[in-house]
Amino acid sequence: MKRLNLGCGKVIKEGWINVDIQKGRGIDKSFDFNKFPYPFENNVFDEVLIDNVLEHLQEPQKVMKEIWRISKKNATIRVIVPYYNTWWAWGDITHVHYFNENSIKQALGEVDYIHDKQKENFEITKMKAVPQRYLRFMPPQVLNIMKRLFGNIIIQLDVEAKIIKN
């Protein structure tokens, strides 16, 4: 099973191919994620982790299309991004995109305004809006209302998707 840790930073995962824009100890490959194509063959990976990376990249939809290309059919993709109205999203000047449930779906190709469906299909299998630690006891219905009224209620989105290929 081949696993890709895209944008690993200092979090080196054993048994994974750890890639980042920077070079460093434990990083297997270094390249710019805003330049396409990525230096991998088609249909290589069974699992891809993109943890707090997508918000830094210029074209999230192109990145996800590239992830689709280098992933095998039925591969699992996990994307973690800071929620759009949290301090963590706005507290880093290197963030160029801000995500909520709708925009992460768009990054994965679920858009209503395109006539022809793209070939790079993902099936979202899990989407969790992770609340602040002190609000994790709240019922989801209450959190849903609060996140629309106040900032810093939800801190990140944790999304799992499956690669759909014919």
Lay out the secondary structure.
Elements: E1 3-6, E2 17-20, E3 29-30, E4 45-51, H1 60-70, E5 71-82, H2 87-90, H3 101-107, E6 121-131, H4 140-149, E7 154-164
Parallel strand pairs: 1-2, 1-4, 2-3, 4-5
Antiparallel strand pairs: 5-7, 6-7
Note down, in words, how this protein is organized.
The chain is of the alpha/beta class and 166 residues long. The chain has a single domain (3-164), classed as Vaccinia Virus protein VP39 (Rossmann fold, 3-Layer(aba) Sandwich), CATH 3.40.50.150. 19% of the residues lie in helices and 31% in strands. It has helices at residues 60-70, 87-90, 101-107, 140-149; strands at residues 3-6, 17-20, 29-30, 45-51, 71-82, 121-131, 154-164. The protein has a seven-stranded mixed beta sheet. The longest helix is centred in the middle third of the chain and has 11 residues, at 60-70.
